[in-house]
Amino acid sequence: xxxxxxxxxxxxxxxxxxxxxxxxxxxxxxxxxxxxxxxxxxxxxxxxxxxxxxxxxxxxxxxxxxxxxxxxxxxxxxxxxxxxxxxxxxxxxxxxxxxxxxxxxxxxxxxxxxxxxxxxxxxxxxxxxxxxxxxxxxxxxxxxxxxxxxxxxxxxxxxxxxxxxxxxxxxxxxxxxxxxxxxxxxxxxxxxxxxxxxxxxxxxxxxxxxxxxxxxxxxxxxxxxxxxxxxxxxxxxxxxxxxxxxxxxxxxxxxxxxxxxxxxxxxxxxxxxxxxxxxxxxxx
Length: 284
What we know:
Layout: H1 10-37, H2 44-62, H3 69-90, H4 93-100, H5 105-114, H6 117-122, H7 125-140, H8 144-150, H9 152-174, H10 185-208, H11 218-264, H12 271-282
């Protein structure tokens, strides 16, 4: 069994996805170049991350991957639903768009959408985790994958859901872009831990029993489950590193504010420090 059994229908969906992905990469690079031309700073590593994410998605959709049918499907799942979205999100595309757009209607529209209540609740980490990991459990532990084998429209919907859910989850966990009243680091970290555990349990269950209504060779099924298990752990570690960097930066900012309030910083808050130095100099 393969994931895309009907030629001419699902490949059309893939072609649309690839076109959108290439256009997004071109728009990102163009906006970054516009910032640099006007003298603004935009790290090159973000350009590399976004382009790498787009390349991973394109490869997952239409590139060659090794292994049998289920192993190849697991590799594609790892690229399209996990690795690619993380690379796109850490490049902070929303921040770039807000900085590149001129003041006016389009920029206000993007801000209004990013700050809307539906987007806030959709980016609630537990909600995003249910959409992403819950969708995978529905796909692999029900007959949905078997039905997608026979219904091209359903297969195309699955192809669209995987990257969309992966982007939603990565955005909700990282929250590197500005959204109104972002969710706290403890909730995001706990959600990442729970989602990683649920994904690992799903992979282990597939190692023992394939998706209902499907038949794969035993070695193919087990190898695909291992790819899903260890590959998922690697992506979760990458997300955890993003959270660790954010925690480190937030701790540094809190320490700087505390130091300034204690009277040893610059400006009005540093008047106590100046008095201490003057007293020291006045001693015989």
